[in-house]
Amino acid sequence: METTLPAIPAKRYFTIGEVGELCGVKPHVLRYWEQEFSQLRPMKRRGNRRYYQHHEVLMIRRIRELLYDQGFTISGARNRLQELGQLDKPLASSALSDDDQSAAPAIWVGDSGGDEALNSSRLLSVRQELLEIRNLLAAPLEAE
């Protein structure tokens, strides 16, 4: 059931409808996943409107892959994400390649109540975003 998902645009916030289209999941499924996966905590604004950030879109795509493509159950996917979070835990400068170390700043994440998997997930997504930004900046500009 693997489908090609569209590229994630360079935006800061995404509505639930946009995330649904980007991830191939209906909005009611996203709301359900928020209850089941502690890593999904979109910002809520007026009228309880949800606004997802880039790292949350990546997490939703990962959850979708675990559930739909790899056949995990909800609890199995939750456990797998926690395992992956523990594997990502030593995400210090030693985890970066020599090329990445020169461009990647030191990242500090404050205590979020001891939720190590959430911190690791955020660090990983921040690192990924920084590398994408670096690649965009390093690419030669096209003549208009």
Structure in words:
It is a single chain. The chain is mostly helical and 144 residues long. It has one domain (14-137): Multidrug-efflux Transporter Regulator, Chain: A, Domain 2 (Orthogonal Bundle). Helix content is 53%, strand content 5%. The model is unreliable at 89-114 (pLDDT under 50).
Descriptive labels:
three-stranded antiparallel beta sheet; 144 residues; mainly alpha; Multidrug-efflux Transporter Regulator, Chain: A, Domain 2
Total helix count? 6
| Main sheet properties | 3 strands, antiparallel
Distance between the termini: 39 Å
Question: Kindly state the mean pLDDT as a whole number?
Answer: 77
User: Care to count the β-strands?
Assistant: 3
Radius of gyration: 16 Å
Instruction: Report the order of strands and helices.
Output: EHHEEHHHH
Strand content range: under 5%
CATH class type? Mainly Alpha
The figure for the number of domains is 1
If classified by CATH, what would the architecture be?
Answer: Orthogonal Bundle
- What structural class do helix, strand and pairing data support? mainly alpha
Range of helix content: 40-55%
Question: Which fold name fills CATH's third level, the topology?
Answer: Multidrug-efflux Transporter Regulator, Chain: A, Domain 2
Identify the strand order in the major beta sheet.
1-3-2
